[in-house]
Amino acid sequence: MKLALIGANSASLELLASATSCQLVSYVEAGEYREDILKLFPQAKSETSWEGLLASPDIDAVIIAEKTTTDVSEDRLRKFVQEAVPVVLIHPACEFIFGLEMEMIRRDTDCKMITHVPYRHHSLLQRVRGWVTANEESPIGTIEQILFRRKMSERDQESVLEVFSHDAELLRYLLDGVTKITATGPEFDADNYHQLVVQLSGKNQLNASWSYVSDQNFSATVEFIGTQGTAELLLEPNGTITLSRSNSEQSETITENEAEYTLKLLEDAIQQRDDVTVEPAWDSIAHTLEIVDTVQYSLKRTRTIELRQEELSEQSTFKGMMAAGGCFLMLWSIFILFLAAFASMFDDFPLAMRINNYWPLALVTPLIIFLALQSLQLVFPRVESSDGTPDNQVK
Q1: How, if at all, do strands 2-6 and 61-64 pair?
Q2: Which of 222, 265, 270 is nearest to 84 (CA)?
Q3: Long-range pairs of 377-384 with CB within 8 A, sequence gap ≥ 24
Q4: Could you give the angle at the alpha carbon of 381 between the alpha carbons of 375 and 383, nearest 5°?
Q5: Per-residue b/e over 88-108, b at no fewer than 16 CB within 10 Å?
Q6: What is the DSSP letter of 44?
C-alpha cells in the first residue's frame, strides 16, 4: 500500500513506524519531523504542493496529520473527500460544523475516511465495554457509573479540549452514545481550563464524569463502579492498558499497537472487503466533535445541554434549512403587511400607490418559491445502495 503524508506530528510518526508493509511515496509540510520521516522511508519524496496528490496513480491513501482549522486546510480535506481519495485522520481532525459537512460529502462519494484514535480498539477496553452490557453477569456486577480521570501537564483551553476530545470518543463508545452534557469549572472563554469537570449521560442509562489533574505523567485512569465491586483501567502511553479489580488480587497489562489496527482497517477498506466495518465511523466521530463543542456551550449557559439524537442525513439538513426559511418567511410576511397598512394611509403619494399595487405579489411570490423548494426532496430523492449496505460499511 502506497501512502502520502500531509503535515506531521507524533501520532503520524507512530502510524508510519507501524507501516512495515506500506511505502511512503510523498510527504508535504513535514516541518521539524522531516528527518524522522526520512529515517523510516529514505525514498520518500518531498512535494511542494498537496494538489498533485489528488489524482496521483502512485498513491493509495493520504494521511492528514494536522487538525483542519483554517480555510486552506478545510478546502484541502474537502477536495480529497470529494475525489474519494482514502484518507487517514488523526483525532480530533476538525471542528464539529466542518465535520458535518464532511459527512454529507462522504455519503455521496463513498470516500474511505479512517480515524486514528489511540486505545479505541484495545482488547481490554473492548472487554470492559462487554461488562457494561452484561449487567449482573459482569465480574463487578451491574456498572452504574464511570469516572474518567486524566493526568496532563497542559492547562490552556486548546490543549485541554484537544485531550478531552480524544477521551470523549472513548466515553462515547463506553456509553453507547451521549445524550446530555453538563460542564462546570472555568468561564467558557477562559484561557486556563484547569478546573474543568464534565458530566455525561449515556444512551445506556449510565453516567460518566471526566476531570483532570495537573501531572507531568501523561496518563489516565477509568474507574467502573459496579454493584459487586469496581474495576479500573490505567491508560499509559504507547498503547499500554492495565486492568485491575477490587474483588481480585490479579491485574492484567496488555500493550497493543492501535496504529497497526488503523492501517489494517485502511488496507481492508481500500480492497473493498464486504466483511469490514469502519469503526469508529465518521458519523460517530462527528458526534464526538459535537460533545466537545457542547462543553463550551454548557459552560457559557451554565446548564445541562441535551445533544441531538437524530442521525446525520441530507434530509435532516434540508428540514433544518426549510425550518429556518419558514421563520424568515413569517417575518417577511409581517413586514409586507405592515408596509401595506402604512402605505394605505398615504394613497396620494406615488410610492404608496405602487406599494398598494404590488404588495400582494411581494407576499405571495416568496411563499410559492418556498413551497416549490419543499418539493425538491420528492423530485430528487436520494438513491440508496442497492445492497442495503449502511453508511459505515465498507462497500
Answers
A1: parallel
A2: 270
A3: 377/315, 377/318, 382/314, 382/315
A4: 175
A5: bbbbbbbbbebbbbbbebbbe
A6: P
- Residue 240's pLDDT band, with cuts at 50, 70 and 90, is very high
Q: Is 157 within 8 Å of 273 (Cβ atoms)?
A: no
C-alpha cell at 288: 464526538
**CATH class of the 123-256+278-306 domain in this structure:** alpha beta
Element at 128 (helix H, strand E) = helix 123-134
How far apart, in Å, are the Cα atoms of 381 and each of 165, 314, 316, 325, 375?
Answer: 35, 10, 13, 21, 10
Rounded CA separation 67/98 (Å): 12
Q: For residue range 6-62, what is the model confidence (pLDDT) as tens digits?
A: 999 988 998 898 887 889 999 998 889 999 999 999 999 998 889 888 888 889 999
Closest to 280 (Cα-Cα) out of 392, 176, 381: 392
Which CATH code fits 2-111?
3.40.50.720
Check: CB of residue 88 under 8 Å from CB of residue 62: yes
Domain ranges in the chain are 2-111, 123-256+278-306, 314-377
Cell 492547562 appears where? 155
Task: Give CA angle at 289 (14, 177), nearest 5°.
Answer: 100
